[in-house]
Amino acid sequence: MLGGSAVMAGITRRLDPVARAERTTLITGPTGAGKDVIAQSLHARSRRCHEPFIAVHCAALPDSLVEAELFGHAKGAFTGAFQARGGLVRTAERGVLFLDEIDSLSLGAQAKLLRFLETGEFRAVGSDQSEKSDTWVIVATNQDLRGRVQSQLFREDLLYRLEVVRIDVPPLCQHRDDITVLTAHFLGEVGCQHKYFSPAACRRLASYEWPGNVRELRHRVESAALLCDATEISEDELGLPEATEPATAASGERTVKATLWQMVEERGMTLAQATAACEKMLVSAALEAELNNRARAAARLGINVRTIYKKLSVPPGSS
Ligand SMILES: Nc1ncnc2c1ncn2[C@@H]1O[C@H](COP(=O)(O)OP(=O)(O)O)[C@@H](O)[C@H]1O
Ligand SMILES: [Mg+2]
Hints:
- This protein is α/β, with parallel strands linked by helices.
- The chain has helices at 6-21, 35-45, 63-71, 88-91, 107-119, 145-150, 156-162, 179-189, 199-207, 213-227, 235-238, 249-267, 271-289, 294-301, 305-311, and strands at 25-28, 53-57, 96-100, 121-123, 130-132, 136-141, 165-168, 196-197, 232-233.
- Magnesium ion binds at residues 35-36, 100.
């Protein structure tokens, strides 16, 4: 993990104590800020470093399967369950289970997870036998979990449990001092350590907003280095949007397209999964715009309140 800025040094200092304590840990921060890197670093620094690190993208798991994926299922638990199967909690035994995008876990799965975190016990779907697993659970989110508690999409008791050990990763624009070191590192990663950025390019790297954070920096630096024939990489080759470019509909669409494609690539999503994820985001945006008033959010989207629950995969009546 790179970054000598005061903020990043503050985070790095906490990693060893957190890794020693092995308590359930919540990592928050915007997309691309380095949440995965921190989770992996915690694993590497812990006594569990030679045991599995199992990462789960909660948003990519359909709600109907998420409990079975995490906790396993008994034979005959549902149609097609011809054999009992262990879940990821079992696979991660003695190691780390990293639950990314924890905000998208269904309320049912949240309840089971809370029980597991508190007792170390869980039940496979369709089984009445309690089992135990020794797994260090690390979770991450780029969402405001408090806001989701308010809209009754996230369990408050689970949030209290998760907040005990918490690492907040700042957006890159809040630790610009690290840009130089990160840039040099990413140049080296693609074998271009002999290349460098022109003074204008350096200024641009230092002043750009980086909405996609370290991930965006990495992509920009690596592709500029690989595509540029000269040793000096110019500002143009960075391909960053004009500083003063007004957010036109066309540039907005380009950004949305790039972001969606990145999501599909990173999570290996199908069109149907990506569409469902987009609907979820729009419903959640409508809820935010309407201050969590579900009736008004539904009206804005031209759907009924039940559909809001369905799109967010919250069973009706669970609030
Ligand atoms: N502190 C860091 N040092 C080196 N690389 C980093 C750092 N933070 C992020 N990265 C790189 O940026 C990219 C995005 O990081 P990631 O941890 O996947 O972000 P997040 O999980 O928050 O979306 C990855 O390629 C990662 O290697
Ligand atoms: Mg991530």
